[in-house]
Every structure is written in C-alpha cells, then in structure tokens.
Amino acid sequence: MKIALMYAMPGEIESLLHGDTVQPLETVAGVRIYQVARDVIACCGGVGKVNAAMSTQLLIQRHHPDLIISVGVAGSFAALPVGTLVLAEGFLQHDVDTTAVGDPIGLVSTVNMVDFPTADFARARAAMDKTGLAYRTGIVATGDWFAVGGDRARWIADTFHPLLCEMEGGAVAQVCYRNGVPFMALKSVSDCIFSTEDTYFNFPAAMQELNRAALCFAAHLQD
Hints:
This protein has one domain: Rossmann fold, CATH 3.40.50. The protein is 30% helix and 29% strand.
C-alpha cells in the first residue's frame, strides 16, 4: 500500500528529510514531493485550504497513493498538553457559510456534506495502538484562519464541537472524497486556543513526537 503524508509547513516535514533513504521525487507548482520510506511519500503543500487542495490533487494524479494522511500541528479547544497526539475522527470546514440561501452552516455544497469522516477508523486506531504512543481522538475544524481565543473561536466551538482547529485537513479530506482516495489524519497539539498565557504556541514541543508517530502509524497501516 502506498501512503502519502501531507504537510503544510516546511518546519513540519523537516525532520523527515534527513534520513539516508530520503529522495526528492519532484517539485510541481512549488510543491516538493519526497520518498521518505518504503511505499511512503510526503509533501509540503503550503498553509491554507487552497494550497492543501492543490497539493492533494497533485499527489493523487501524479503519484496515485492508496491512502493520504494529513499530518501537522493544530490548536486545541480543550485544555490538552502541548504535544498531545490526536487521531482525527473526521473534519468539517468552519468557514463555509451559505446559510443565506438556506443551507446548513458548514455545508460544502458541491458534495452536500458538512462532515467528512476519516477512513476505516477502527483500523486507524488499531495501527495507532501498535505504536505504543498515547493519543486522543476527536473531530477537527478547518478554515483559513489561525485560531486564537475570542468570539470567533467560541462560535466555532459552540457550533461544531470540534476538539481541534487547523487550516488544511478539511480541504484534503474534501479532495480525497471527490477522488475516492481514503483519508486519515494525525495531529499534534501546538496550543490551547482559549489559553490566557501571553506565549502559548509551542511548535517545537508539538513536533517532538509527531513525525516519529506518523512514520510508525504508516508502517502499522501497511502490516
């Protein structure tokens, strides 16, 4: 089974690119794609939904993965420790709003869906269990907004009840759905959105276990 790992930021994918077996495959429209392990490729697609969607379509059309996994950091609506791993149960897009024409909030009208469940969740949990790493499960909200505490964050939390908020996974999920490609996601908590601390975003701590976990997760999915 060929697995593709989707990242947004160079800092998220960086630690994967130093192994002796890592090989650059190609760069297309600014999207760099690498072979990072046997039957595992990875790309850094850029921040936000448009970049994520474009990169996902490129991966599907040019490299034909059997499964795509969105990997990266995310803010948490719950008071979780930074670095907590979260296996996503599904995604929604909090910034899609066509309620003015009678649609439910969050409805993606092209496919008439609000919720995009991840694939074969029982299998995903079994693979994560084999890694031996602690993790949580939950729903993730995606939108083109870096989430910070305030009225908008409270509205997202109260309306959709997600555990996490980030900027790419929902777009990856939508493109995978339209192409019939299974989709999963593994995230690491980088900040607590409603924290009152002055400095709360901790990217290094969020990345400490994430890529090791992602590679282990992918390997056990291939068992």
